Amino acid sequence: MNVQRKLRMDKPAFLAWVQAREGRYELAGNRVVMMTGGSRGHAIVTRRLAAALEARLDGAQWTVLTSDFGIDLGPSTIRYPDVVVDVAKGRFKDLTATAPVLVAEVTSPSSAKDDLGAKAIEYLRLPDLAAYLVLAQDEPKVWTWMRGSRGFSQAPKITTGVDAIVRVPALEIELPLSEIYTGIDRG
What we know:
Blueprint: E1 2-8, H1 11-19, E2 24-28, E3 31-35, H2 40-56, E4 62-66, E5 71-72, E6 78-79, E7 83-87, E8 102-106, H3 112-116, H4 118-123, E9 131-135, E10 141-146, E11 157-160, E12 165-168, E13 173-176, H5 177-181
Parallel strand pairs: 8-9
Antiparallel strand pairs: 1-3, 2-3, 4-7, 5-6, 7-8, 9-10, 10-11, 12-13
């Protein structure tokens, strides 16, 4: 992640600005942050997770979106997670999610600290969010925060192993890690 220290703007200005730019950016505390490209592993894990979610969810109720679509996280922050499950009733011209129920990030060496720290704090404040997942790109490992009757736990549950399953009760689905990680060359 590369913070553009001299480039600051509010959300409406950022959304207009970013639509006319090549590359990936986020707005964090009114600061424009340039996002780097991902590895092959990152791209494969992201694509397989999105496909697994689409295969399990009712398309009339939920829309699975990837990193080109934003989430409004308050007065000065817009993030572009790797995968988001949003309600299907959003308009085609929307630039941010309407009511995201699941957000997922795939870690990279430069993003792991933020994905498990600052971004987790921001995402867990979303009123409609039921699940936040952080997936490793180089091994079958998922950190999960699931909303329970008392909200989210402070620490994530860690699920590891290609034979493991991540359950998302709010969406009534199970995500076998084998579907996401089998055949990935970890070299």
